[in-house]
Amino acid sequence: MAEEGLLAVADAAAWRREEFDDRGERAQHEALHVRTDLPHHGSVVHGTYGGCTAYDTSMPTPARSIAISATPLAGVNAAEWERLLTANTTASAFSDRAVHAAWWSAHSDTAEDVSLAARDAASNELLGYLPLMKRPDGVIYSGATFHIDYATVLLAQTSPGAEDDVAAALAAALINTRTSFNLLRLRKEDAAHARMISAITDAANANDRTTTFGIEEPAPFIDLVGISTFDEHLERLDKKERHEIRRKLRRAEAAGVQITASMDLVTDLPEFIRLHRARWGENGLFTATEKGASEEHFMREIFSSAPAGMITLLLARNEEFGTFAAGLFLRDANALRYWNAGGDIAARALSPGVLLFAHGLTMAISERLPRLDFLRGNEAYKYECGAVDAQVMQLQVPA
After folding, report:
1. How far apart are CA 255 and CA 207, in angstroms?
2. Of the candidates 219, 254, 283, which is a domain's last residue?
3. Rounded Cα–Cα distance for residues 42 and 30 (Å)
C-alpha cells in the first residue's frame, strides 16, 4: 500500500476536469407546459418543448392530472424540496437542495437550468422533480453533476404506484423534447433513480428512440451492516493489509497525531483549500483559474448553507507539522460518503490517508450507518481498505 495512496479519498474522478465545447451561444430556455392525465402507470401528454411536439396517447379514465413544466431550481421552494427529499429515503446527501443551490450559484455560466417539475394540476402540489442542465454542447445532462458524484431524482409517494406515474410523466416530457440527453451518476440503490431509468426506457421505446444504458464507473463502498468496531472490519481484510493499517495507526499515535472535526466549516475552509492544493496542485479543484475560483465559490456556498450535521470536515494535526491533512465527508441516512481530501506532502510518512479513513470508518460505525462510501472511482486504495463495487450508471438517448 503506497504511503500516499489513501489520501485520494475524494475519488480522483470528482475533480478531473469535465471538458465541454464552449463554442456557440447557449440555447435559450423555452418553457415546457405539459398536461399529463395519469391513471396508474398510464399517461396522456400534450404540449411542446423547444418547438418539438409532444406525443399523445389515449388512456383509460385518469386517477390524477399531472402538469409538467420546465422549472429551474428557484421555482421549487425549500419546503417543497424537503418534503420530496424526505419521501425519497434512498436519496444521497448530494440530493440536498443546498448542494444544488451551491452548484448553480458557482456554475450558472457553464450550463442552463432546464429541470422538470411535476405538479398536481388541481392543487399545484409538487409531485416530482428532475434536475437537468443543458451544456454548451447542446446535450441535456443530469442537473448539477459537475464534480457531484450522484444525480438527483425526487418522486412523491402520495399513494401506491404514484412514484411510477410521476416518473412516467417526467420521462414522457423529456423524451418528447427530441433533444439528445445523457443522464449521469445514476444509482440502482436509489429507488427513484431505478424508476426513472425504467420510465425513460419505456418512453423511448414507445417513441422509437434509441437508448444506451451502461456503467459510468464504479463507486466502491464498505458494508458496515453487523460491524460494531473498527477492529471487526479489519479482521475482514487480508493479513498483510490489516497489518499495514495497524502499523500506520501506531506510528501516527507515537507521533502525537490528533484528528478532530471542524467546529466552524466556513472558518476552516481556507485550511481545507490549502491542503487540497498542497496535495493535488494543478490536478486538483482549486487552481488559479476561473474554474478554480468557481469551485471555491461552490464549496463556500455548501459549507455556509448545508443542514447541520450533513458535512464533517476532519483535520489531522501534530506538533511537528501543524494541520497536515483534511478529509471531507457527507452524511445521509444511508452512508457516510468520503468526498474529498488534501494533505501536506511533507507529512506523507504519517500516512494521512490511512488516518482519515480509519477515523471516518470509526465515525460511521459509531453512528450505525450501513456504509462508508468512497464514491466514484476505482482507485486501488479503496479495495485495499475492504471496499466492494457498486456501479454508477448512465442513460444516453441521442437526438
Report:
1. 65
2. 219
3. 26
User: How crowded is residue 319: how many other Cβ atoms within 10 Å of its Cβ?
Assistant: 9
Q: What CATH number does the domain containing 197 carry?
A: 3.40.630
Torsion of CA 262, 342, 272, 334, to 10 degrees: -50
CA atoms of 54 and 334, how far apart (whole Å)? 38
Span 389-395, average pLDDT: 97
The pLDDT assigned to 37 comes to 39
Give ∠ CA 156-128-13 in degrees, rounded to 5. 110
Mean pLDDT of the chain: 86
For the entire predicted model, the pTM comes to 0.85
Please state the separation of Cα 191 from the chain's center in Å.
15
Name the nearest CA neighbour of 333 among 86, 101, 78, 10. 86
Grid cell, residue 350, equals 504519517
Length in residues, the chain? 399
- Give yes or no: residues 202 and 118 share one domain: yes
Query: For residue 146, what pLDDT band results from cuts at 50, 70 and 90?
Result: confident
Is the pLDDT confidence value at 42 over 50?
no
Give exposure, 169-194, as e/b (b: 16+ Cβ within 10 Å).
bbbbbbbbbebebbbbbbbebbbbbb
If one counts every other C-beta atom within 10 angstroms of the C-beta of residue 397, the result is 24
